[in-house]
Amino acid sequence: MKPMATQRETYWNRVATTYDQVFPCARIGQAQREVVWGELDRIFHSGQRVLELNCGTGIDALHLAQQGVRVVACDLAPQMIEIARHRANSSKCGELIEFCVLPTERIAELCNDAPFDGVLSNFSGLNHVKDLSAVVGTLTRLLKPGARVLLCMAGHFAPAEMAWYLAHGNLRGAMRRFTRTTDDEALDVYYPTVIGLRRMFQPSFQLRNWKGIGVVLPSCLEPATRRLSGGFTGLAKADRLLGRVPILRGLADCVLLQFELVS
């Protein structure tokens, strides 16, 4: 008997058909993804095998496959996986991707498919996992020594986002990272700090580097990009530079962290 869908699964199934139009195809979404891809292309290489958590509609899995990387891509929402499979089947390298309907909390079920050369989780999927430390423990059993873990997670404090919402009279939006408010009351969200994440991954993993994404261009500013025309490229470049600056990088929409399994 198929288990009943969780509230989180129901939410992501509902938004699956419009997800690509809301964020990945938006100008800020594309700019933020390019930063992640730059790091992906640097640490993962052709012939490696990578586990992707919360793969969504398969955009990142396909990018990795285009670089010759084999991917096991997981998501808890069957509708997301269906769209991802269609995207992969329409490409020339879809055979390098294996899709699996599986919540992040159950990745221990992949132990028979281990070991992997690395892990990717992009754009805040892990912000919806309550017991992230349990996931970290499982990853130590799924990965090869020296494997890299690349995580893009929503930051815990984003002043540019707060300023935007306050300027538009939206106090609820401005305080959402403190009150853990989401679009759906059934969807839990958590905003761990970089220090907290580093402690959570120790001692098995070491944080090798991290940067901010969306210091001055958080995703909520997407409506304003229609008025920026040619100025958007300059702001996106400035955002990439500011994301490397100590202190400022911690004030971004998202943080991109790279861990290495050392024990």
What does this structure look like?
Helix 1 (7-22) packs parallel to helix 4. Strand 2 (70-75), helix 4 (78-89) and strand 3 form a beta-alpha-beta unit. 38% of the residues lie in helices and 19% in strands. The protein has one domain (7-261): Rossmann fold. The chain is of the alpha/beta class and 263 residues long. The protein contains 10 helices and 7 strands. The termini are far apart. The protein is globular and about 50 Å long. The chain has helices spanning 7-22, 27-43, 59-66, 78-89, 132-142, 159-167, 171-174, 176-179, 194-201, 231-242, and strands at 49-53, 70-75, 97-101, 116-121, 143-154, 205-213, 254-261.
How is the topology of this model organized?
Elements: H1 7-22, H2 27-43, E1 49-53, H3 59-66, E2 70-75, H4 78-89, E3 97-101, E4 116-121, H5 132-142, E5 143-154, H6 159-167, H7 171-174, H8 176-179, H9 194-201, E6 205-213, H10 231-242, E7 254-261
Parallel strand pairs: 1-2, 1-4, 2-3, 4-5
Antiparallel strand pairs: 5-7, 6-7
Helix pairs in contact: 1-4
